[in-house]
Amino acid sequence: MSEEHQPRREEDAKEFAEEQASLFKITFGPLIWAVHFVVCYGLVAVTCAKGWDIFATRLGLVLLSALALGGIGWVGWSAWRQWNPSRTGDPMNRGSRAEDRHHFLGHAAFLLSIISLIGVVFVSMPLILIGGCQ
Amino acid sequence: MTVRETGLPRPEGPYPPTEAMLAEPVPEDVAKAQAERLRAAWAPPTGWRYWTAVNNTKVGKWYCLTALVFMLLAGVMALIIRLQLAVPENDLVSADRFNQLFTMHGSAMMFLFAVPMFEAISILLLPGLLGARDMPFPRLSAFGYWCFLIGGVFVIGSIFFDAAPRAGWFMYPPLATKDDGPGSDIWLLGLSFIEIASIAAAVELIVGSLKCRPPGMRVNIMPLYAWYVLVVGGMILFAFPPLIAGDFLFELERSFDWPFFDPERGGDPMLWQHLFWIFGHPEVYIVFLPSIAIAAMIVPTVARRPIFGYSWIVLSAVGTGFLSFGLWVHHMFTTGLPSISLGFFSAASEAVVIPTGIQIFAFLATLMAGRVKMTLPMLWISGALAIFTMGGLTGVMLALAPFDFQAHDTYFIVAHLHYTLFGGMVFPVIAGVYYFYPFFRKKLMSERLGRWAFWLIFTGFNLCFLPMHLTGLWGMPRRIYTYPTGLGWDGLNLISTLGAFVVAAGFAIFVWDLIRPKGGQPQIPRNPWDAGTLEWTHDVPEEVWGVRSIPHVTTRYPLWDQPGMQGRMDAGGFYLPDAREGKREILITSVIDAEPVQVQRVSGPTWITHLAAGFTGGAFIFPTFHWYPPAIACGVLAICCIIWWLWTSTARPPETDIKDVGLDLKLPTYAAGPASTGWWAMWITMLGDATAFASLIFGFFFYWTASPDFPPEGAVHAASGLIGLAAVGFAATWALTVGGRRLNRVQAVGAARACLAFAPLMAAGGASALIGSVWPLEPSAHVYPAVLWALAIWVAAHCGVGGIMQLYCLAGSLFGKLTPRYDADIWNVSLYWHFVTIAALVTCAVLGLAPGAL
Fold first, then answer.
1. B353 contact A CB<8A
2. Do B705 and A16 touch (CB under 8 A)?
């Protein structure tokens, strides 16, 4: 990003669409956590209630957890590139330019993906540590 | 986007304002005339019409005071409970009265104090924090307040007639479903009514913080309080609807004996526990986050430096918001769920500690890096942090399922929850009262009384609740009205009771200080704490307009970092300094970067909100006593009031399309679709509605999971032919609504009217076919027909409301309120139908396909 300028109309719309996406992007990490959580809980509940093979369910869910971690990792990586203080020299993002807001949203998305990563790791642990439906 | 096709103008003129423009003075006589007009436009009514006011400063104050009164009443109940438990074998109150007292204490503190207090404080403060004139929908705030008042008085009043609910604040069936007397119905209907008011407030607050920020206030510099409001508003939308769905099922069981929670007929009491706690656990954070948001405003002020780790606090607010939805089963650890399931919730309960801890460390870091002045608000914040941390630590213990098995339903839990709620809510809110008192009352509270109140409440609190950990570990269960002597509980209970009265003494001092006359006090300084945020640009003595002119904000602490801003605001040198037509107007800005996009008219004083709230109240309160005809009459009248209110004061075609808002900027006066606040409000409301619907669907599949014969062998299923017909009807009404919107846009007004005339017929046809498909089923026989009926009723009721909306648009088109150019109403109605159509088709799929598939 260079210095501020008055954008042309289409450019304006495009930039806005990007930022709208990046406002949603701060929720991507937690959303992946939430989906992972609901699937884990729901599938285990049904498996135990209906007497399905709990081992297969656990295995599948561990794979899902790996997938979730990968997804969050990707969100975190792209957010890091949006924020990266060593490149932008701006860890605090308290300025008033469009660019500050852009870095801030990257920063928030990055931090949220870390917390989501921890959340997914925590929630996957029972899958590995607890044997069955008892 | 198709919004611009109507040829509505776009903003014109320079933005952002240049330094040169800002340096230009405003002529004094012009400023004076503007101020006169502005004052007249925003003047609240006087005399007995005072109560028709809708200004956020008035409604917010009433709201806060009402919540405070309910809190004090619930506090008195707590004192009676403590008196009863002070000594063993006590007979101060009967067992039944005791049950009513603890049920009402919990229910009132949560539903009539904690959540409404957040809404009340936010309605009072948010416009100030954002340099806005008012909330985007002032009448909605007022309507919410009057609903809250009516519902609250009804619920809490029941205790004076010995008719209060008595099954505990979470109303577990079968105790609550089998309870004779109106207690459970009062709880269900009264609180459902208040929950709807809560959702209304959430919609208003979300739209307020997204669309009513001052120009230039991008998301990265908005006050942290606004971030918290956004998060909490979002949480309310996902947390309250499951409870509303649960209440719906519960009331159908109470009133018509549909066996949703009765295991003898296939029901399952666990479903209520799930729905209640999917609401109940996030609710704890709904209460906690806004209170900690108050701390996030106070801490930088007393540390005299910007908050440390702004992004980290945003992370912790958003992260806590999400994680708090993964905790609900930790209230159900002893219900016999599979241990892996318990493991998930235990893990998530431990994970939520991380974001919660981060924000506390961010506050501590700010305090350490700053030069702290130990003001009264800071004293209360310190107390809050100390108490909340202790509650958090016992929370970490209780999140471990094996520990919880031991402590479940003992006084250890009572101690834990009071530590989190006092530390996480009561103390920060009191800190906020001291801190913001000069803002909303233009007076200062007493330093000396404040310190007395603090030390009494702080020591009294610990005296009362610290011993309870031990009482609990020594085995005393919750909710017993008395206990035999010699179990080692006697002394601890007596200490707790003494502590409770010390807390009460502290509150007496606090409340006295709050309400005592302060006429003799000299005029306070405008910014008594030397804070940096916008609310301290308020006028002393009070002015009615919120802000004289709406500033261009480029920093997180404008009063510290934008010298000269205050002077320019006062001179009317920023945006919207005038009310040329004598009407109330607010500035609408874009969601992310807060670029000015629209001037919106907002409504003024009225009685219609009282009428609407009164009739809505009737529709909820009469069914408590099984008086259905007056309830239906009230429901119809409430709808009539709301239609009249919307018709006369929302989305009217403006006199001019564009107007000057100051600093050479011209903004459009009308918006439709995603550019308008109304569309956002509809979107947010429907998100909540969709969550409630999803909870019902969850219920259906829950029965399938939990019971081996669902649907039962040989059950009568819904008639598939009629379901198919219903699906066609729903698809047709959707297509006609959306088609009507498009045709109207391209000037084909006649065709659009035809669409809008046929659409309600199709909606009615679809709804009738759906009801017809379940008609032969006997809902009180088994839970399977009951849940199908419940889904059909849900969809049919939504079709009814949707049909009224379509006819409203048709009438709008016929009478010139809705034109090809000014078509906001039909945009909102189409949005409603997008959601309802999805819900209706999902219902058709579940009714028609699930019996074969399961």
1. no
2. no
- Per the CB < 8 A criterion, the answer to whether B851 and B723 are in contact is no
Mutual orientation of helices B677-706 and B183-211 as an angle, nearest 10°? 140
Contact present, B317 and B225 (Cβ < 8 Å): no
**Residue B176 and residue B99: Cα distance in Å, rounded?**
12
Q: Which of B344, B400, B553, B595 to mutate to test the interface with A (most CBs of A within 10 A)?
A: B344
Instruction: Tell me the CB-side half-sphere exposure of residue B627, using CA atoms within 13 A.
Output: 13
B705: contact with A, CB 8 A cutoff: yes
> Could you state, in order of their start, the residue ranges of all structural domains in chain B?
55-267+619-649, 293-519, 691-853
Report the predicted TM-score, pTM, of the whole model to 2 decimal places: 0.94
User: Which chain A residues have a beta carbon less than 8 Å from that of B321?
Assistant: 30
Fold of B55-267+619-649: Cytochrome C Oxidase; Chain A (1.20.210)
Alpha carbon of B323: minimum distance to chain A alpha carbons (Å): 8
Angstroms from B700 CA to nearest CA on chain A = 13
Pick from A99, A100, A115 the residue to mutate for testing the B interface (most B CBs within 10 Å). Answer: A115
- Angle of helix B447-473 relative to helix B490-515, nearest 10 degrees, comes to 160
What is d(CA B194, CA B184) in angstroms, rounded to the nearest whole number? 15
CA neighbor of B328 nearest in space, from B411, B252, B243: B243
- Of B443, B827, B317, the residue nearest A111 (C-alpha): B317
Residues with Cβ < 8 Å from B286, sequence gap 6 or more? B115, B118, B232, B235, B236, B239
Rounded to whole angstroms, what are the CA distances from B584 to B39, B55, B120, B133, B453?
10, 10, 22, 9, 41
Query: Tokens representing B5?
Result: 């096709």
Give dist(CA B651, CA B672) in Å, integer.
9
Which among B340, B354, B555 has CB closest to A126? B340
CB contact under 8 A, A119 and B326: yes
What amino acid is encoded at B240 in this protein?
F
Place of tokens 């679709």: B673
Fold category of B293-519 in CATH: Cytochrome C Oxidase; Chain A (1.20.210)
Within 8 A of A127 by CB-CB distance, chain B residues are 340, 343
Query: What is residue B552's DSSP assignment?
Result: P
Strands (DSSP E) contained in B479-628 are 585-589, 596-601
Phi, psi of B718 (to 5 degrees): -65, 145
**How far is residue B472's CA from residue B89's CA, in Å, rounded to a whole number?**
18
- Chain mean position to CA B710: 36
Identify which of B322, B339, B354 has the shortest CB distance to residue A130. B339
Divide the 854 residues of chain B into consecutive groups of 10 and give the mean pLDDT of each group.
60 90 90 94 92 94 97 97 96 96 96 95 96 93 95 95 94 92 92 88 93 94 95 94 95 93 93 95 94 95 93 93 93 92 94 94 94 92 96 95 95 97 96 96 95 98 97 95 94 97 98 94 93 94 92 94 92 92 92 91 93 96 93 97 94 89 92 91 95 96 88 89 96 97 94 96 97 95 95 97 97 94 95 97 93 77
In order of B279, B331, B695, B783, the CA distances from B247 in angstroms are 12, 19, 11, 16
- Burial of B587 from C-beta contacts in 10 A (0-12 / 13-18 / 19+): buried
Q: What is the ipTM of this complex?
A: 0.89
Class (C level, CATH) for B691-853: mainly alpha
Q: Are A102 and A83 in contact (CB under 8 A)?
A: no
User: Which stretches of B366-463 are assigned E, i.e. beta strand?
Assistant: none
Q: Is B314 on the interface with A (CB under 8 A)?
A: yes
Q: Which of B339, B354, B553 sits opposite A115 (nearest CB)?
A: B354
Q: State which residue of chain A sits closest to B316, comparing Cα positions.
A: A112
Evaluate whether A105 touches A19 at the Cβ level (below 8 Å). yes
